[in-house]
Design brief:
It is found in: Cell membrane. It is a multi-pass membrane protein. Residues 64-252 form the ABC transmembrane type-1 domain. Belongs to the binding-protein-dependent transport system permease family. The chain is mainly alpha-helical and 267 residues long. It folds into 2 domains: 1-47, no CATH class; 59-261, MetI-like fold (Orthogonal Bundle), CATH 1.10.3720.10. It has 13 helices and no strands. It starts with a helix and ends in a 6-residue tail after the last helix.
């Protein structure tokens, strides 16, 4: 009975979670002209025209490229910096380590909206408005990523690092040949999260990307609502934005499972 109740509960949560996406896809394939539910339930009239119309009426290809650059570059840099910082906080001994770590972690309590104006002023003074680096650089100091890396690396056996030091390995070699291979599961897990955060990010790209050529998909689709675009085309554009997220999750799902299985690694 306990398993049955759990199965029913999980089924209800899955239904509530999936239903909005199913409705989005149904409306995206509905005949043009603002058709929504219940008309969109007629699958015999499904068409690809909404997708072709939205691709022709908006520069979605450019917006998708901007989102891809923003997400992928941010993932690579955040994973590199977070893994290096996590290794330092987990295995290195230096004065003020705990104070520095918890001070850095305390920035999680500061909402991004409170730092938006200072960020914008700083980036604007440096000439970063409407540029890729102005879009990417302010998001790289990710305290949550550092925390996750530190918590995973601290569980790695100290004997590995001691043996490497005895063999004369440098710090960089220890990091690249011991730390990085062992934290691949958490790198993949964090990579999925960071990709989704940046791919779905709206506020910062809206503020920093002021020209149409620098819009991301989320910002570009939001601007379509103020133009003469039907709800079917907007849902078609939203469906396009979901596809990369599903691909990333599908490709890295095995590493997500591995990160859970190896989270209790001990010496």
């Amino acid at each position: 009975m306990a398993r049955l109740r759990l199965g029913v509960l999980l089924g209800l949560v899955a239904f509530v979670t999936v239903t909005p996406f199913v409705i989005m896809v149904l409306v995206a394939f509905a005949p043009p002209g603002g058709k929504t539910l219940p008309g969109a339930l007629d699958l015999t009239r499904a068409t690809w025209r909404n997708f072709s119309d939205v691709l022709q009426s908006a520069d979605i290809t450019r917006w998708a490229m901007n989102s891809l650059i923003y997400s992928l570059v941010s993932v690579l840099l955040i994973l590199l910096f977070a893994s290096m910082a996590g290794y330092a906080f987990a295995k290195k001994r230096f004065p003020g380590r705990e104070v520095l770590f918890w001070s850095f972690l305390a920035t999680l309590m500061v909402p991004f909206q409170a730092t938006l104006i200072p960020y914008y002023i700083l980036v604007s003074e440096l000439g970063g408005v409407d540029t890729y680096w102005g879009l990417i650089v302010p998001t790289l100091a990710n305290s949550q990523a550092v925390f996750l890396m530190r918590q995973f690396i601290v569980q790695l056996p100290d004997e590995l690092f001691e043996a490497a030091k005895i063999d004369g390995a440098s710090e960089w070699r220890v990091f690249t040949t011991i730390v990085l291979p062992l934290i691949r599961p958490v790198l993949a897990t964090l990579g999925v999260f960071v990709f989704l955060w940046h791919w779905n990010d709206f506020l910062w790209p809206l503020v920093i990307g002021q020209s149409e050529g620098m819009r991301t998909l989320t910002v570009g689709l939001a601007t379509l609502e103020g133009e003469n675009v039907t709800i079917n085309q907007i849902m078609a554009g939203a469906t396009i934005t979901v596809v990369p997220c599903l691909l990333v999750f599908g490709l890295l799902q095995r590493y997500l499972t591995d990160s859970i299985a190896t989270s209790g690694l001990k010496s």
